[in-house]
## 1
Amino acid sequence: MSTSPSFSRSRREFLADAGILVVGFSLFPRALRARSSGGAEHAAAPSADALDSWLVIGRDDRVTVYAGKVELGTGVSTSLRQIVAEELDVPLERIAWVQGDSQLTVDQGRTVGSGSVKRGGAQLRRAAAEARQALLELAAEQLNVPVSRLEMADGVVSVAGDASRRLTYGALIGGGRFERTISGRPPVKDPAAYRVVGRPIPRVEIPAKVTGKHVYVHDVRLPGMVHGRVVRPPRVGATLESIDEQSVATLPGVIRVVRKGTFVGVVAEREEQAVRAAKAVNAKWAATPVLPDAADLYASFKSLATTERVVGATGDAAAALRSASRPVRATYRWPFQLHASIGPSCAVADVRGDGATVYSATQGAHQLVTPIAALLGMSSDKVRVVFTEGSGCYGHNGADDVAADAALLSQAVGRPVRVQWSREDEHAWEPEGPAMLFEMAGAVGGDGTIAAWTYDAWTPTHGARPTRDPATLVAGTLVAGKAAAGEFFSGGGERNARTTYSLPNERVTSHPVPSFPIRTSSLRGLGSPQNSFANESFIDELASAAGIDPIELRRRHLSDPRALAVIDAAAKRAGWTPRAKAPVRSGSASAQIRKGRGFAYVQYDRTEAYVAAVVDVDVRPDTGSVRVRRVCVAHDCGLIVNPDGLRNQIEGNVVQAISRTLKEAVRFDSTRVTGVDWTGYPILRFSEIPEAIDLELIDRPDQPSVGAGEAATSPMPAAIANAIFDATGARVRQVPFTADRVRAALRASKV
Amino acid sequence: MLARTTELVHTCHASSMTAVTPDDIRGEATVLMPYASTALRIRVNGADHDVSAEPDTPLLFVLRNELSLNGPKFGCGLGQCGACTVHIDGAPRRSCVTAVSAVAGKAIVTLEGLGTPERPHPLQRAFIDEQAAQCGYCINGMIMRAAALLASTPRPSRDAIVSAMDANLCRCGTHMRIVRAIERAAAGGVASPTGREG
């Protein structure tokens, strides 16, 4: 067998013998071949309209699903299997899964925005329903009975009341094609009849993950593969003054120092040799100071923002504020933060003269093809991107960038190259979650409702994903000498900028910071956690100023029964005691622990999951240390597909949000990011986790599923801030709530 | 000198749901490794392996790239996160900052040495039962560190678990489940806490 990449082979060719290859062992490019089970043929070119693009059924009765949405560690490859198993009446164990392959799977759009179950699941449900109908029609023909007399269960179609007349799905169509478009006409099941959806099915890949058998992109090995490392400048914009390639020439195993523009990388036979060479290579950079002093960061946002956009407005907020007897004003600040995956970004690329295959943990395999192709000077049809799971994702991290690094290095040496970033590369070069500045003003009127509400926020972009221009990838930027703007997503910074409270006089204004020398993009929740920190802290401040229970004030501005249901569920579960008075201020810097309880509520992205959180904290006034003791969350994301998977996601959101709120901020000086390891960018440790995270899941079988990958992060920062206020009377308005900041807030609260 | 990379044949785990992908992309070829200067014999998961590497090569790279033991993961290379944890003579050690030459003659156990998807170690079983993973990249370190804890302290308090695990980082926020899994394993008794020592 040829070991050249098989993009030149037709899909039909490489799938024709798939049944053999599944059980056989062969050299690369098996990956391109053993992609479906039982000799089934996949569609010639995956199109969302063609049923054969989505799933094939083998002679062995196995169902192979081709999903564009990918497993990022959130469990969607299990939840989506449940949806297919349910709709197709096939045992879950019989479903094989192919995901995120630019040449084999339908482009379902990037795996982002908590959309995999909501949108991706809906598509798969329709495809499975179509397949079910097709199988029924085939069985009706072969068994010579009307469809209405047929039953389906466990991968078998049988005649009702006559179990002897039955055909398995494999017998009906095994190895063949449906040749059917997805009409959307076949009925989908009534959720009341669900037997697989709604159950806490254990995640399919966890046994392999806990035994070292799961193959991450970091574990991909190709024959002849060598190892690359990148040598990054201090930051984008630095120029390469000189590089002495001879400085590593005598090191063992070094194959090549690769330079293209200011892109520099090394390739060596062995990983440790590449690591050593990357450290040893003598490159001199000229870096001009371009970053503002950290103390001036937020002021610089205001000077850089030249436009504004009114996100939403009702009544006349300015007039209402002017006429308010006791207006409240507050400024909130959020820092740059990292995705900070435990495994630094990694990719394997095999670039040949006639095409390239890239294994990547990208959120968008299809979307990564064109910029990689452009970077390599190839046409897009010669480039294939194969998603392979990486370390936790949490948004647009370095996965796309490292794929470009690997592709360039592989092209340079003509061999498959694996590149893994160093910890420093990851911390310094992954796209950061944007810092944000908020100025809020408002007032509660004499009737005990919010009479005025204004919001102004300044933020760099929350969306800078790769476009067709390779300069949207770090390697492409370094080759070209300048960055290109990534795919802008205007909704990102404005996600939950506007609350869901019904406010008579409201003005919500965003001030985009068009460019900033730190590259920013999508981090879990995009602007929602930040916006909700400001909004949900501020409504707490308004409630306290007006002497109204903070939950009660929120309820006065909500009418959606699902919103009220999560709020009441969280309050009841946590044993919320209504309070009208402002808390007693802590007075002295005592070592006596002060206990407090805070509340926050967010409907994610205003139309998605409803989340209410009650947080209990301990604050030590003398040290300023904050410990989250207990978290209670009520959560409604519509129909629940997998309740344990959902719990896992909510718990993860809660813990990660505590980490982001209490500990995380990117440190930088005038030329570079300086917090480039886990001491410079600390995250939450076991000794800092809550004692309990108590969840109430509100299942809504009559409502469509919406995502749960991000929603529970959003209320947490404000709930913690509100709890600190309840404990001490001190308001912390800048994330992270470090001990210094808490002590400063305590001092400020005394005057 | 040539070193042969012995690829473990990937077998589908119990539910056979991995039939499609992972082993498709695992190289199984003989990989030539020139320039490696020193022949060393190391004992991993009960078997001796002759490897060739410069003496200061991190053990992690030898385990992963020469023995195809993918359990231990590169997280930081600085000994800060614990993703690379293995047992050396029963003690949890960070293989990213442990030179291969320092472990000759010692018993090394990796995650693979504890158990398999078909026959998981009680801790691995507990992690499955508690669904104590999201991305799973840190889980190697969590299980290896917990296995060492349970070997010395079969019935640790929650505080002792938290204290032992404090040096390991998880980013997905799976901490609550990890603690529960360790408690579950401890409650059930861990028969062979450090796996095959050879």
Note: The domain at 6-197 of chain A is CATH 3.30.365.10 (Aldehyde Oxidoreductase; domain 4).
## 2
Amino acid sequence: MATSITPRGQQHVDRLERIWAERPGLVGWVTTTDHKRIGIMYFFTALAFFGAGGVEALLIRTQLIGPNHHLLSPAAYDQVFTMHGITMIFLFVIPMTTGAFGNYLIPLMIGARDMAFPRMNALSYWIFLASGIFMYVALLSGHAPNAGWFDYVPLASKQYDPGTNIDFYGYGLIFNGIASTAASINFIVTIFKMRAPGLSLNRMPLFCFAFLAVSFALLFALPSLSVAALFLELDRQLGFHFYDPAQGGDPLLWQNLFWIFGHPEVYIIILPAFGIATSIIPTFVHRKMVFFPLVALAEILVAFLGFGVWLHHMFTVGFATLTTVYFAAASLIIVIPSAIQLFAWIATILTGKPEFKTPLLFIVGFIIYFMIGGLSGITLAAIPFDQQVHDSYYIVAHFHFVIFGAAVFPILGGMYFWFPKLTGRMYHEGVGKLSFWLTFLGTLVTFFPMHILGLLGMPRRNYTYPPDLGWSFLNALETIGSYVLAVGLVMIVANLLISYFRGAEAGNDPFGGDTLEWSTTSPPPPYNYAVIPTVTSAYPMWDKEDREADSRRLDRGEGLLERGHETPATTVQDAEWDEILSMPSHSVWPAVSALMLAGIFSMLLLHHYWIAFGFLVVGALVLFRWHVKGVTA
Amino acid sequence: MTGTSAGGPTRSVTAETAPQAAAVARQRLAQPNGWWGMALFLCAEVTLFGTLLATYFYLDFGAHRWPPAGIKPPSVLLPLLATAGLISTTVPMLLAVRASRAGSRGRTAWLIGFALIIQCGYLAGQVLLFRHDLRQFSPQRTAYGSIYFTMLAAHHAHVLLGVLLDIGVLWHVAARKLSNYWLIAVRCVALYWHVVNVIAVLVVLTQLSPSL
């Protein structure tokens, strides 16, 4: 470890520092292939979009604070709630979890020096950034998507929505999907092939299992969304008839395709939260996870079952009873893997010695909200009840408990948890706890009354409501809650920002964490580990002998791999050391390729098809150049 | 021995010549990263075609007449013959992989080139058939036309991409070298074609389903 490096060990470290040195300044960031720097860029970009989505949420809540308010016009309100949904799902949660947390942590946790495809990793980031800007250009120019995040036809068809609003949605999501597909391939290969020797699948941290499940779910779910959006644009731009019942099409085709993607998407959003929870809990309760193999299987099972339940979003469509009952039953089965994990977390906390520091508090909040959201989810699997509350605020309450309370709380806890690793500084514990309580209460006050409002009949997406329906008090309460929540979230960011400059030194392992990332310095060097780590269990940091062996190997100069950007590749199951890879380093081509893609989609949007084709050709040349350069370099 | 540090695992990137690359490939225990990347990319592409085919039958089952009145059911012979031709390229692609693993640069290039000629012929034939169909009926008149042409265009685009991949690999292997990197590339391109060939069968059976 860093504290006990001998002069001979230091020579090796210096050599690695020279080999892995990144370019300085802004150029360094644009051309970087370091998974940690890419993770940090993902983090700040996703955080900016979280801010934008949060402002949209506050606009919505401010509008609804009392009856007959007209802060936003009905048309603007449509755009704002649609962009709120798109932003939070596609531009915040997925890039924050897979992009930021996954990118930064997975190679560290598995003892690798980089992702399997470092330049494709950079490409994913730049495409994500470009697609986010693409969709926000829509909002800033007043043409944002306005048919809700699930964008049902015929409302979203050319006939009823003739502007470019929906085209931003269609092209934007195809664009964004390319980034997520590339990222998920990268994660799967990294997790399968880049684990440190000895880190066999049964020793892999549960965090990585969760991200493996997410990556597979993304890989198989996204094509359905892309095809649906492609059909939509073909209908809108070229006059095709996929969704047009007059010429043999079917609007329900959109709903089916969308939810075949959309339901797995819910688990894509929440599974990383499960992974973060299973990282934070053992550290702060000082014991290993209960039911480790069951939790790993449950994480994968949730992702798998998520593909078989999409019709429960469509119970009011009028399918045959047998069909709806099948999907209701399938939806109820998901309770089983979810409950396995829930009980495993609770049992681990109860049987350990919990230290309720800020990260663990967020996980406890997550468990409570996941239970509330999960239980209301079970009520929605009851078909008659679902038909009653469909498109009401009850639904809004349910999914915000799941995808805010349950999915975002671990992200917030994780931000505190890994902040010392990223920066080498400690956050402020007192302010951290206060920010938790504000966020926790804010969430409860904002979203819980929505259940009641939904049962009282308040529909979602209405831009205002009349005064005599008995909805006013609860709406005002929710709005107050949302501002409390916003204060809590700003406090988190402020705490971390100030701690970055003024926090106490954190050292390598301030919490006694169990996974490998805590063994390297804070922040980690570009090569992550001077010596490729030895791993003999799922809790490598608690195996003191292995860590001491690593520092002895550094002195002896063993396991260093210092002939270039080298890292081991291992076998998929047992992590036997198979070969030594030489990873590509910095390159400008990923960013340029993303720019070409942005050109293609912008020109498609503006109907300049030949210019779009020109961008495609130039993009292909860029890929060719990138490729040839990458091989000879 | 190329690229091995004393007693340690292979430094596969140092395998520059065809025999060295073949030796590294034989020594490797697991599939290389590039192969995994291609396999997973193809999972996404297969899912994409699954969605297109499912849409075809979804619209088919919802229709009173399929194809709709005024559109003749597709003729069977030419698309089936073309597909048979395409599938036959599986053999040279398999042999090309085997040749590359045996360290034979010339044979690898020759086999890929042979497959490429048939694949180009297939693509040219399919483009002609596509244009012929476009003269018969339009994607802008009926949902049948919409899914018919979208499905075929998606498939032909994948064939075109495969042809470009072939050309890239062929140029490199024939004119330059068959290093470790390009040996993996040969395997990836072969895998791509195997999957595209399977997709071709599924697409043509779907396309011809009203006539079968």
Note: Chain B is about 75% helix and 0% strand.
## 3
Amino acid sequence: MRLLLVEDSVALADELLLRLRAEGYACDWLVDGRDALRAPFDESYDIAVLDLGLPGVNGLDILREWRTAELALPVLVLTARNGWSERIEGLEAGADDYLGKPFHPDELVLRLRALIRRSHGSEAAPLLRVNGLALDEARQCVRAEDGEVPLTGGEFALLRYFMLHPGRVLSRWQLAEHLYDLESERNSNVIEVHVSHLRDKLGKDIIATRRGQGYVFCGLSE
Amino acid sequence: MIPRGRAASLKRQLAVATAVVLAVLGVLLAGGASLLFERIQGRVMEARIDADAERVLAAVRRGPEAPYLDQARLDAAYSRPLSGQYFVIRFGDTQWRSRSLWDSELPTVAATGTFVHAPGPGDQQLLLRTREFRRFGQSFAITVASDYGPLVREFRRGLYTFTILWAVALAATLVALNVWLGRALRPLAVARRQVAEIQSGTRQNLDDDAPLELAPLIRQINALLSETRHALSRSRHAMANLGHALKTPLAVLYNLIERDDIRRNAELHGALLAQLEQLSQRIGRELGQSQGGAASGVGEPFVASRDLPAVIDALRRAHRRDLAVELVLDEDATLPVERVDLLEVLGNLLDNAWKWAASRIQVSVAGQGAQWFIQVDDDGPGIADPAQRQQALLRGYRLDESVAGQGLGLAIAADIVAAYRGDLALDHSALGGLSVRISLPRQGGLAKSDFAS
């Protein structure tokens, strides 16, 4: 999951990036509103966390501009201004969710998870269940009948992306774009390695390879 | 409002002053006229009596033996009985009386040459004078009397008519004064109604097309209003800025204490978290209160038909739970509460209802008498224990800890309602869940004017 964080408090951004990366998000962080205006058009983000009090361009204006350009990116507004009149203004500007500061980091993680699920049309259940597979996003493992299958961070992020796009052909390039931020080195071999590990842990047929095209998540189709 | 009985009334003062001036003027006029009349009437009568005496004297003719009275030369009035014109002529032992005297006597007059008032026959008031004349070598004493009663009665009738006309004029003046004053004071009544509208939030300024005398006051009031608005908005902003400035560092702290090295020390983590919760709840509460002007009546009012759907839309999007929301609104319900404040109240209440409701929420806004009633009902579990309902309104008490959010919603709503001298109560709802009932005074309102009578 590729996440765009627009936040002008360095201290808060540092903490959030730490937590969000641990949650398997590939995060890019911007401080200036003017940069944020263009960012989602240049990169493929799955979700954005947007502060409203930004230098350069106000967060609400950024949001309005994005929506005017018919950008469907799910946006969670993160702001100190969380009175109801402001909240209504934010939602009317096109925010999908609105979280007031201060907030507990767990709350943010939960909201982001729910928002991503909603944007992919899944329901807000504790476990992400697709094609017979149950992913526990909180503990980053797969729940099986005979217990848990632990996953590494990379495996978890990849599996989650697969499970949110079941049945769709995903190219390596596409996967890399959504799983790694601008700072990481995009090596498609890493994806290959993760796919192989996932097959080892969950079964060979869980991810099919389409030669020349990429991968398709099939799940445990009995 | 000042009780009308004791209040100094401009109208009454002016009416009393006008009545006194007109009454005094009337009395003076009537008195002056009487005095003048008496003097003129006296002179006229005296002149007439003198002239009459000389005419009577002219009727005394020399006869072959003795003087005689030539009746043909006498005025006819002397022949008509009790006509009011009388004479008596004495010379030597002889006395001639006018026939008009009939069988009455003229009062005998001691001194000659002086005018004397005396009662005459009937109710007549006579002025009489006796004068000595020498004619044909004899001395004639001629007494002539004339009744001045008719003149006096005529004057009295005139005075009476004058008094009645004067009283009518006075009453008409008072009525006219009342009407004019009412008209002149009408701009004050208009201004008063506009102030009430400002208080109730349906108006921002007074109209400044007032009469010349009132315009400076209106301008002054408008200046005061705009100054108050600015001061209020300044202090509100200062408060909000402080609160908001504290929120980001707080958010950083919330994240910091989740770091592994602090998490490992559960006691420290718990203590830090508790303090952070206290800080952020306190800030949330104070910001909730400082949001609006708390009944200052200088902001944008809450228009139920416009603002409520916006809140519900926001909640629908935020919660993404399909709930049936029923709105029961008075038509054109515009509440004298700042929009920001009532949005905060209803946002918090509806957010709470949304978290708990099973399938439906009902919101009603109705004006009744001097109050606005707002009610939010849900079909959730509600709060069965009345003591717990009280608790839910207490500062910082977290009743809905299991659900995301600060758990302050009800308390913040109650704070804001209290700032508007309203009342917020929790009850059991007919829908099965919690019912939040708010009553707000229609303070200001469009109260009836005291100026126009």
Note: The two ends of chain B are 16 Å apart (CA to CA).
